[in-house]
Amino acid sequence: MNNCYLKQLQTVSKSIKTVIAFANLSGNKVFLQVQTANTFIMPQQVKRLISAFAVFIVLFLIMRQVLTPSSFGELGHFRAKAIQENMVRELRYAGSVNCSKCHEDIRANKAQGPHAQLKCEVCHGPGMKHALYAGQFTNGQLPDSLVLYKPGERKDCAICHQLNAARIKIQFDTINHTMIHQIDAMKHNLADTDTNIEFKCIECHNPHQP
Amino acid sequence: MKNKSAISRRDFFKAGTIIVGGIAVTTALTPVDGLLFATERPAGKGKWYGIGIDIDKCIGCGKCANACKKENNVPQEPFYFRSWVEQYTIKNDGTIIVESPNGGIDGFKQSVPSEEIFKSFFVPKMCNHCAKSPCVQVCPVGATFETAEGIVLVDENYCIGCRYCVQACPYGCRYIHPVKKTVDKCTLCFHRLEKGLQPACFEICPTEARIFGDLNDPGSKLNYFLKNHTCMVIKPHLNTGSKLFYNALSPEVR
Amino acid sequence: MENHIQDLYEVLSKVEGYVYPNEIELNWSILIVLYPYITGLVAGAFILASLERIFKLRILKPTYGLALLTALSFMLVATLPLVSHLGKPMRAYEIMITPHLSSAMAIFGFVYLWYLMVVLLLEIWFDYRRDLVLWAIEAKGFKRFIYKALSLWTTDISPKSVALDDKLGYIVTVIGVPSAFLLHGYVGFIFGSIKANPWWSTVLMPVIFLFSAMVSGIALVMFIYIILNKIRKQTIDMACLDMIAKYLFYFLIIDFALEGLDQIHRIYEAEESFEALHTMVFGKLFFTLFIMQGLLGTVVPLLTLGTLQFYTPREKIRKPIYLIVSSLILVGIFFMRWNVVIGGQLFSKSFYGYTSYKIGLIGAEGYLMAFIWLIVPFIILSFLLWLLPPWKKIDVDHEI
Fold first, then answer.
1. Residues β-bridged to residue B231
2. Share of chain C above pLDDT 70, in %
3. Is A52 part of any domain?
4. Which of A61, A97, B134, C381 is the most buried (most CB within 10 A)?
């Protein structure tokens, strides 16, 4: 194997010398003649391989250029446009500040009780659509899509107020040390003893002023 | 007869070089980026959002999980959550029971009689928007990234749905949207932030157990919260740079 | 989607303890079990071929061409389970144009391309070029065109040219060995670098994957060699087969040692996740881990092959033993991948519970699809053996 390498090196150096010598004399014909004799020719299979790979690499680079999204890499390894795309989503929750604009009376009423800092949408659900469009309907007849949920069932109150060992110690107002009132919603005044109709919590407790 | 199976010394060294060379090449080619991934908080003066959750205040109403699903169009089935609430019950004998029925959206029932309970509390969970996020590190195409304000977002038009980030998240925050087939997760209501509104879950919480704010602003509610409480992150040993700080985090919480 | 949701409700009913809600659904299915299995077979078959070429184990000559063609057939199929599993398969090209270099998965595209084009195809080409030129002369019509095209329209088959083919092929094989390590090692790294998952996160993962790949690849070539010669009604070169079995034995020992070390280390350190993993290993994973991977896939082959090192029964007995042992190993290594991929998702990252894996018969990620992906390489191999039969090659003793 070592001999082979040595031979090739010798061939290459010989060929370089020969080329330099003959290049000074005449044109291509002589050059070619010299080549076929003793000089280094790129083997046929290597030539083919190099062309095949060259074609492939060029194609790949072209595809890469074409397919890479335009805003990619501007801010980091991601499409910068994605930030904009994440911004343009529909808002569903309005925030209590927006509710008070029309329902100031309810807010004032609530402000005096334990539900004072409770946001409207906690119980009534997402209100952005309502806040934006309900004002147009002055006759009080809202289309179904703008009507907000009015929780009235026991389970709606029980979600926060059901007796639970994990709630016992909750003191959310550290200044007044008030705890969340808890009740066993399945037992407390469950139903009318005569008619057996289930009482709703809101029949005795005003949700805005409990 | 010549032993055909004998390996000459020359061949042995050849073999050794190839193996060692192979390992060396392989190591050199491993993404060096990954090693340098654990970066520090950006030094700039811009916003750097973080989250605080006060376990002492959470009443487990599940309204946050509910609001999140409604605000962000998350599928209603109980397998896809951007944010959810867990109830931990530690019994007197040391057994730990964790529950999250439908992510807490329908509320919780007390499953263990009070006499047997040693301790019980609720833990809201959501994306921690990690500063050294492992999910961003493993995305093969660059479909998830962290913005300059510290929010980890997903590019749903570029995501190929390989689910590698879902595997890499230690907190279980990501899921594959069943219809879109790309990954989805909490975006800190990015679309609300730029309009000056709070993320839906923070907006809705009845007891202000969730605090959202700018870590770079010394006067922010979040920094006040961090200063006045002993806060911890979940799985700190994984060095994810989690920016979700819990007050009163009990050691059982994972 | 309805069916999918129905399946998820069924999984939900089987959840034990507590899992994060997003973990109820398993993310990586049997298709992701298949991918490391198939690339492992490729890497292993190639290593067997390189044993002959680089390490001069001439006795393995009868399986050299077969090993290369086997590697190629499986290589062509390797990406398919992966791409079909993606949520958005039509975007799969993104990995090639914007690879995120901090992600081990991102280098997949390039490693795959490199190994396919520069290593496998080139080596096979250099090995077969002279024969392609000669077969092109003999053949007629369309087949002639195919052979000419495959030889890239070269015509030079002088001894000097063939010697060059040989030398270049040798260089490619030398490059190929670390490339094979990279091809399968990075798959192990994909799992081993996930710190969130303690079943996967171990330094040994790339090495374990690598050695189990070599074991499975060698077993595959052994299996195919026996079956193929039965079909072609040719005599089997028992010396070759015995040598393959010997190397299979060596690599299996190393593989077993590595896996054992991983588990011993995990048991000894007993980190945070240990109890949860322990329950899983002795519960949901018991059958696939201890029976399929452990007993049938490792211990039985080890004992059998080990015995054969000391006691050599008649050829009539050795042949079926080799057939059985290679099949057992192939099955065992499949379950090793299963235990890693599926096992890593059965337990919750909260360490408080376990979910379950629902797999159907039909469907894009069902048993049938997995079976098809495993059969297609054999079909490709049959075609390749018809097009480029190794036994019709003019015997060239690799001089270098």
1. B247
2. 98
3. yes
4. B134
Residue C174 falls inside a structural domain: no
pTM of the entire predicted model? 0.87
User: Chain C: residue nearest A50 by CA?
Assistant: C152
Q: Is residue C9 situated within a structural domain?
A: no
Residues 6+ apart with CB under 8 A from B124: B53, B58, B64, B65, B83, B84, B85, B86, B104, B201, B209, B210
The mean-pLDDT minimum among A30-39, A157-166, C153-162, C334-343 falls in: A30-39
Q: A60 with A21, same domain?
A: yes
Task: For residue C225, tell me if it sits in a domain.
Answer: yes
Within an 8 Å CB–CB cutoff, is residue B108 touching chain A? yes
Residues 6+ apart with CB under 8 A from C172: C118, C119, C122, C123, C126
Contact B206 A72 (CB under 8 A): no
Q: How far is A8 from chain C (nearest CA, A)?
A: 12
Q: Which chain A residues have a beta carbon less than 8 Å from that of B145?
A: 75-78, 82
The nearest CA of chain B is from the CA of C336 a distance in Å of: 19
Contact assignment for A45 to C400 by CB distance below 8 Å:
no
A65 and A10, same structural domain?
A: yes
Greatest CA separation for chain C: 72
Instruction: Give the largest Cα separation in chain B, rounded.
Output: 89
Domains in chain C, number: 1
Residue C44: which domain range? 24-102+192-391
> CB of C214 within 8 A of CB of C50?
no
Distance from CA of C233 to the nearest CA of B (A): 27
In a domain, A80, yes or no: no
Alpha carbon distance, N-terminus to C-terminus of chain C:
59
Cα C157 to chain centroid, rounded:
35
Q: Which domain holds residue A103?
A: 90-150
Task: Tell me the C-alpha to C-alpha distance, in Å, between residue B63 and each of B54, B58, B70, B72, B193.
Answer: 15, 11, 10, 14, 20
Percent of chain A with pLDDT over 90: 24
- In the numeric block, which tokens belong to residue B124? 């809201």
The first and second tokens of residue A126, run together, are 């997402």
The nearest alpha carbon in chain B to C99 belongs to B141
Judge: A64–C97 Cβ closer than 8 Å, yes or no: yes
Total domains in chain A come to: 3
Distance, in Å, from the CA atom of C22 to the CA atom of B70, rounded to the nearest integer, reads 17
Give backbone dihedrals phi and psi of C2, rounded to 5 degrees, phi first: -60, -50
Q: Domain for residue C319, yes or no?
A: yes
Residue A105 shares a structural domain with residue A146 = yes
* CB spacing of B59 vs A167 below 8 angstroms: yes
Which residues of chain B neighbour C58 with C-beta distances below 8 Å? 4
In terms of domains, do A146 and A157 share one?
Answer: no
The CATH number covering residue C243 comes to: 1.20.1630
Give a yes or no: residue A82 inside a domain.
Answer: no
Q: How far is CA C192 from the centre of its chain?
A: 18
Domain assignment present for residue A6? The answer is: yes
Determine whether the interchain pair B157/A126 forms a contact, defined as Cβ–Cβ distance below 8 Å.
no
Q: Exposed, middle or buried: residue B56 (CB in 10 Å: 0-12, 13-18, 19+)?
A: middle
Domains observed in chain B: 49-247 (3.30.70.20)
Question: Based on the domain organization, do A144 and A158 belong to the same domain?
Answer: no
Pick the range with the lowest mean pLDDT from A69-73, B63-67, C261-265, C302-306: A69-73
Residues 6+ apart with CB under 8 A from A22: A30, A31, A34
Put simply, the answer to whether A82 touches B62 (Cβ < 8 Å) is: no
Say yes or no for a CB contact (<8 Å) between B140 and C100. Answer: yes
Gyration radius of chain B over CA positions? 23
Which one is predicted more confidently, A35 or B125? B125
Say if residue A44 is in the same domain as residue A95: no
**What CA–CA distance (Å, rounded) separates B174 from B171?**
8
